[in-house]
Amino acid sequence: MKSKLLIVEDDRNDIKLLTQKLKNEPYELFIAETGENVLNMLEDHDIDLVILDILLPEIDGFEICRRIRKHEKYAQVPVLFYTTICTTDEKIIGLKMGVSDFLSKSADERELLLRIQNLLQAKKNN
Description:
This protein is an alpha/beta fold. It has a single domain (3-125), classed as Rossmann fold (3-Layer(aba) Sandwich), CATH 3.40.50. The chain has helices at 12-22, 38-45, 61-70, 88-97, 109-125; strands at 3-8, 27-32, 49-52, 79-83, 101-104. The chain has a five-stranded parallel sheet, sandwiched between helices. β3, α3 and β4 form a beta-alpha-beta unit. The chain is globular, with a radius of gyration of 13 Å. 29% of the residues are buried.
């Protein structure tokens, strides 16, 4: 059975690049271009991992992560911040919100795939 990944990204070029990187992997991909419907998508599709940009319109990635962690049903879903901003300040804020991991959008594709695999494996082991 394929793991279900929710990509939360507002930039269509970044969505295209990320889906290209993941197309040959055993994942079923779901896309949300805003944070408004993330919790509904988690409910509707039984998501295994959220790949989340920080810079989003209306609701930023920090707030989305906080809402996921606050919701008892989704608190254990891994959240990977995949973003252009990866300063220490952003990492600390994200860690306080409960993010599982960080990765810069400029990172190597192999690192992205390994981090996703590791987060999914850790979820299965819990």
